[in-house]
Amino acid sequence: MSGVALRLEDYGVIGDTHTAALVGRDGSIDWLCLPRFDSAACFSRLLGDERHGYWRIAPAGSPRPGSGPPLMATRRSYRENTLVLESEFSTPSGTVRIVDCMPVRETHPEIVRVVEGVSGRVDMRMDLVIRFGYGNIQPWVRRIDGLLTAIAGPDAVALFSRVPTHGEQMSTVAEFTVSEGQSLPFVLSWHPSNEAPPRPVDGHYSVSDTTQYWQDWAGRCEIPPSEWRDAVLRSAITLKALTFAPSGGIVAAATTSLPETLGGGRNWDYRFCWLRDATLTLSSLMACGYHEEAAAWRDWLLRAVAGDPSQLQIMYGPAGERELREAEIAWLGGYEGAKPVRIGNAAAGQYQLDVYGEVLSTLHESRRGGLEDESSWDLERVLLDFLEDGWRQPDDGIWEVRGPRRDFTHSRVMAWVAFDRAIQDAEHYHLEGPVDRWRAAREEVHREVLEKGYDPERKTFTQYYGSKELDASTLLIPIVGFLPPSDERVKGTVTAIEKELVQDGFVLRYDAANAAGIDGLTGREGAFLACSFWLADNYELIGRRDDAVALFERLLSLRNDLGLLSEEYDPVAKRLVGNFPQAFSHISLINSAVNLCAKEEWAADMSHRGRLAGLRSERTRRRGPSSRHHPLSRRLFGHHGPQRHDPASEA
User: Phi and psi dihedrals of 44, rounded to 5?
Assistant: First the structure.
């Protein structure tokens, strides 16, 4: 009974800025963790089968999950500029629409599903299988005051509906008919099992209120008109959906263990917040005018990394948690048989030099955008004190390889970024610090990378010192300003990556199929979408405008019908793979769009936005964070063209 999950392209996402659910084109919610992104799932069919939990509402004639090809929605879309999903099913007797949303949370998480009759009369069926603990815990189900409740351990959910339900083979079933003009709501609420169920909400009002919330939020977006504006705004809304509102943190994805190749073992838990994404996240938030959201992300970052600089992690939990212990779930068969299914992420304990550059770069961009915070400078100085010696140590690299530590080129480039941004801030904002020492360290790192991380025979930067392997992370060299785009070493690296890491027009992170000695894993992986956007950025920077636009539009074509991207694309299977929806992919989409369109308009407005942001940020600090909002969005790498570099330090 395995293999019942749909293609990733067939899923949409709904969320309440605390957690998110995946809704299939067949009307089934196959993945939901409650009450947070990183909580145990109560619907785990995505990684198992129907026994592990799902909630399907669909025309009664369509096969149940696992019993045959399902009836799929003939049309679906989000309501304009919202995260409210509408799916229409056409049958011989009529058409029915299902409206799905998660109201932005005030107390308890809720899923609202409204069944609307569009034409004729359609017989419907609801199947609700609740299994806590990633599909392993069958709850005690009973009726209390008209509510259907399910309780096990600390978790409880309550279903409210005017439609009668009954038990059937350890599931809850409803059979009903909806006629044209009729509207029937279903509301599922989570609450701690030691508390009474929350009072049921009005499903119709909740849909209307949620629609208004998202449209108001989208209305604050300051994206200039362009041919890609809709794609950018949809990515911004998706990123907002991946925000953990109480802290301002942004998780990398809503899922765990969706494989990087179908049937493979490169399956990781992405329901956490990566420092690797920090600068890109902040830049794209500010590019879209979401300065309060950028400030919330910056504040999350400061809280998460506070402490001993030698203990800086590459990722944290949504609220800044450090303990992300990795374990395998044996009872789930994996998405299309891809095992193991993992929760937690052991990479949290890795040593990665690049995160120091990410933190310093993010705080640098915060200042440039008017998000001043005097307290952060003391933290930055402590991090730099550690980095003055720490940058010489081999590390685990940006891709969290599970092989031996090495002198990764990108890691050293980001160490250079840390010193460079600190020097710029000290000079421009008159901040105190050992600038001469930092300048000497910056020059030493720069000189070493050019000497040891560059292969003059092949005219390309390599993955690590002395290697012949390539790595797409070296595409960031001109983006972060380590070298200007006009440098022949930058152009040579682009050419080499085109020849060796591009598959079917998209970019691999590195040659995973032949990298067992590097990453400690076996098997191949799909093309990493963020890296493909970086190649488009490089094309634009080095003057290959037509190539940049062509690649960018090809990447846009990979989105599903709802505008969503996963982590990777498998050129062999011609499918999206990896965790879904993926923040890094949508961040990169926004940043590339900023590079490719109306860059001057975007840049001209930034200083004005920054001044307004400073005022808004100050008001936010006085009154505390909003109880309902903690938005988000994105911009390029935060600078208009490459950052300064020291020509005297070039080889």
Answer: -125, 20
Q: How far apart are CA 350 and CA 396, in angstroms?
A: 6
Question: In this structure, are residues 617 and 299 in contact, taking their beta carbons and an 8 Å threshold?
Answer: no
**pLDDT for the residue 337:** 94
Is residue 123 within 8 Å of residue 61, measured between CB atoms?
yes
C-alpha to C-alpha distance for 448 and 452, rounded to whole angstroms: 6
**Per-residue model confidence (pLDDT) at position 69:** 77
pLDDT at position 3 is 46
CA distance 355 to 331: 35
Predicted pLDDT at 371: 85
For 20, list phi and psi in degrees, rounded to 5: -150, 155
Q: Shortest CA distance to 212 belongs to which of 48, 83, 106, 126?
A: 83
| CA separation for the pair 66, 5 (Å, rounded) | 9
- Residues contacting 595, CB < 8 A, separation 6+: 536, 537, 540, 541, 548, 636
Mean pLDDT (whole number) for 600-609: 48
Look up the pTM and report it: 0.90
Model pLDDT, residue 607 = 43
pLDDT, residue 141, reads 94
Amino acid identity of residue 14, one-letter, is I
- Record the tokens describing residue 337, joined without a space: 């048989």
Alpha-carbon gap, residue 79 to 132, rounded angstroms? 31
Find where tokens 């409204």 sit. Answer: 114
Residue 169 vs residue 479, higher pLDDT: 479
CA angle 369, 370, 371 (to 5 degrees): 95
Contact 498, 536 (CB under 8 A): no
SS3 content of the chain, % helix, strand, coil (to 5): 40, 20, 40
Q: Spell out the residues 6+ positions from residue 340 whose beta carbon is closer than 8 angstroms to its own.
A: 257, 265, 267, 328, 329, 330, 334
Identify the structural domains of the chain with CATH numbers, from first to last.
8-216 (2.70.98), 220-624 (1.50.10.10)
**460 vs 456: CA distance, rounded Å:** 7
Query: Which tokens is 607 given?
Result: 């200083």
Residue 65: what pLDDT? 64
Q: Residue 401: its pLDDT value, please? A: 80
Helix (H) or strand (E) holding 22: strand 20-24
Q: Are 384 and 445 in contact (CB under 8 A)?
A: no
Phi, psi of 8 (to 5 degrees): -60, -35
CB neighbours of 642 closer than 8 A, spacing ≥ 6?
478, 479, 480, 481, 483, 484, 485, 541
Amino acid type, 468: K
User: Tokens at residue 629, please?
Assistant: 């909002």
Are the CB atoms for 538 and 482 separated by under 8 Å? no
The tokens of 295 are what? Answer: 């400030």
Per-residue pLDDT for 188 more than 80? yes
Sign for the CA dihedral angle at 336, 583, 410, 552 comes to: positive
State phi, psi for 23 to the nearest 5 degrees: -110, 125
Average pLDDT, whole number, for the chain?
A: 89
Closest CA to 149 of 130, 164, 133, 134: 130
pLDDT tens across 215-274, in order?
999 999 998 888 899 999 999 999 999 999 999 999 999 999 999 989 888 899 999 999
Q: Is the pLDDT of residue 606 over 50?
A: no
